[in-house]
Design brief:
about 325 residues; alpha/beta; 8-stranded mixed β-sheet; disordered N terminus; binds iron/sulfur cluster
């Protein structure tokens, strides 16, 4: 009776996980701190799960950054991954990056590329290079039409121009200055195999613009935010959720990003991942849910908060901020 009650309360994703581990999904380490420095962005993409835009006022304050710095030092994490919105638009961005690097913490910035061409950002690429920041940049296709359809008119031209400038500094060329590009599908389907698509990107971007990059990361569109609304408008919501569910791949579970990282929202709230942040589902199951109460022992083995959106991470080859998982 007790186990039946427990069974009924499980969501579909937890049921799949229970087939692999009765204990449910738990984190195993905190190798990565992923930080949302704010929801302001110079773009307003159709697929944005965070619904970032130029109008969003939410911004991480320095006092939260200071606390994160302490927490990251305590855990000896491998990477501090800065995202947003456009993280570069946070007024304390450079101060924070400098402070993290001073502590010898490796920093990665998720850039939308076009922000590097905004007024006042002219010297930002050099700043990033001088601090040996790793870059991950969105470019959801090598074709202009597809990029502009998802991310807005003019974004393709500006993005390729930004990559050209980064290449000139050594990004995507020198081993110490990685520039990884991110692909996500232009509709309700799974990404193609990462390695084959990387070859296509390399050839097409090389021939068209003479630009280069380090690796391509393929990411599945999560059924959240603007992408979910778009699915609803096209009456594709149920079909897409069904596709994600049916494509569950148990081999992706070990590498799920929530098992190896913690996500910190602009106001210091702790989440298992950026997608739970978008859904406003903080860390739970008794673990502390704010950076002010950061406790590495409790958080590194916390039980993960899951939902139907989690099938987006386990479908097909899997998906994470670092690309495919299997
Ligand atoms: S997807 Fe990225 S670049 Fe586009 S609006 Fe969202 S945060 Fe900005
Ligand atoms: S959506 Fe987040 S919590 Fe769910 S499986 Fe993916 S990374 Fe883990």
């Amino acid at each position: 009776m007790g186990s039946e009650t427990k069974e009924r309360k499980m969501n579909d994703f937890e049921k799949e996980i229970a087939e692999i581990s009765q204990a449910g999904l738990h984190s195993s380490t905190i190798d990565i701190f992923q930080l949302s420095l704010g929801l302001r962005c110079n773009q307003q993409c159709k697929h944005c799960h965070l619904e970032a835009s130029p109008q969003r006022p939410e911004m991480m304050e320095w006092s939260i950054m200071e606390r994160i710095l302490e927490a990251a030092k305590t855990t000896h994490c491998q990477l501090v991954d800065l995202t947003g919105g456009a993280p570069e638009l946070n007024p304390d961005f450079r101060r924070f990056v400098s402070a993290l690097r001073k502590e010898d913490l490796q920093v990665q910035v998720r850039t939308n590329l076009t922000v590097l061409l905004e007024p006042g950002m002219e010297d930002l690429p050099e700043f990033l290079k001088n601090h040996q920041i790793h870059l991950v940049a969105s470019l959801p296709c090598y074709l202009e039409e597809n990029v502009c359809a998802q991310r807005g008119q003019g974004v393709y031209e500006k993005s390729t121009e930004a990559i050209r400038r980064l290449n000139q500094l050594g990004y995507g060329v020198e081993k110490e200055l990685p520039l990884n590009l991110v692909y996500n599908p232009g509709g309700p389907f799974l990404p193609p195999p990462q390695t084959a698509l990387e070859g296509d990107y390399r050839r097409e971007l090389g021939q068209r613009f003479g630009i280069t990059f380090t690796h391509l990361l393929t990411i599945t569109n999560m059924p959240l935010g603007r992408f979910r609304r778009e699915l609803g408008l096209q009456k594709q919501e149920e079909n897409y959720l069904q596709l994600l569910r049916q494509s569950f791949n148990p081999l992706t579970v070990e590498g799920l990003m929530c098992r190896h990282q913690i996500s910190v929202g602009w106001d210091g709230t702790l989440y298992d991942c950026d997608f739970n942040l978008a859904l406003k589902l903080p860390v739970n199951h008794g673990a502390p849910d704010h950076i002010q109460r950061f406790n590495p022992a409790e958080l590194s083995t916390r039980r993960i908060v899951t939902g139907e959106h989690c099938f987006g991470c386990t479908a097909g080859s899997g998906s994470s901020c670092g690309g495919a998982l299997a």
